[in-house]
Specification:
3-stranded antiparallel β-sheet, 5 strands
């Protein structure tokens, strides 16, 4: 009787145990690399775009938001599963948009948000249900006085 006859299927059992775990780790690393790539591009482009577009109040806030969003989407066109949101808020207004007394009525807060949608959101390995967040967000915020040149907070 040969010594290895009893262990003939051991390699297949080990492969069946390790392969699902290796696939999950691969997907996590792949998602992490895609998010880091998008985050690096977003971080290097978002603040200069917000500053350059927001120092000109004549263009209007909604128009400026669309300009920044399109510039960010153009720079992130090669990134997968990415969404960009841009918003602005006057610090002289409350959350409802109503005017209020403020010592700094001309300050505006501009926010650019990178939203990454990882995949798969939920999966099952060996009857164990697992999941990751549906979105991962990265946000850049800057406060600017558009009427005073060079005033960035």
């Amino acid at each position: 009787m040969n010594k290895f006859e009893d262990e003939k299927g051991q390699m297949y059992v080990e492969l069946a145990v390790i392969l699902p775990v290796a696939i999950v780790i691969f997907l996590i690393v792949l998602n992490l690399f895609w998010f880091i790539e998008a985050q690096i591009i977003f971080t290097s482009v978002a603040l200069p775009q917000l500053i350059s577009k927001s120092v000109s109040p004549a263009s209007g806030s909604a128009n400026m938001n669309e300009e920044v969003k399109s510039a960010l989407e153009k720079s992130l066109k090669d990134c997968k599963r990415v969404e960009v949101r841009v918003s602005s808020q006057s610090l002289g207004e409350n959350e409802k948009g109503e005017a209020q007394f403020s010592l700094t009525p001309h300050l505006h807060r501009y926010t650019a948000t990178l939203i990454y949608h990882p995949f798969p959101v939920d999966f099952s390995v060996a009857s164990v249900q697992a999941g990751i967040p549906e979105i991962i967000a990265h946000e850049k915020t800057i406060v600017i006085d558009p009427y005073q040149s060079g005033v960035v907070f």
